[in-house]
Amino acid sequence: MTRFMVIETFREGCLEKVYERFRKQGRMLPAGLTYIDSWLEKGGARCFQLMETDAPGLLHQWTRNWEDLTAFEIIEIGPKPAA
Q1: Does 65 map to a domain?
Q2: What are phi and psi of 56, to 5 degrees?
Q3: Which residues form the domain of 42?
């Protein structure tokens, strides 16, 4: 499985709408895309989500559910370097 860091920047005035949609509909992840964990930036303007999938196209399918409220940056994460 490949991991991705998804950086969500909430569009101006949309933070409450994001949480309202999430409460009503959940993350709306397509089958095959797994949510691992998330962190909210202090101040709440951005959210960092760690996701995992073998089908990167699923990320774009998922972001279409939210792009009216959030801008996305998706970064493929490589393995940790050996210590």
Answers
A1: yes
A2: -55, -25
A3: 2-77
The token pair that represents 37 in the structure block: 């964990």
State both tokens at 6.
């998804």
80 or 76, which is more confident: 76
CATH number at residue 39: 3.30.70.1060
pTM score: 0.88
Count helices and strands (H / E) in the chain: 2, 4
Residue 59, SS3 per DSSP: helix
CA 35/CA 27 separation, integer angstroms: 9
* CA-to-CA separations, 62 to 56, 73, 83, in angstroms, rounded: 10, 13, 35
57's tokens: 């196209």
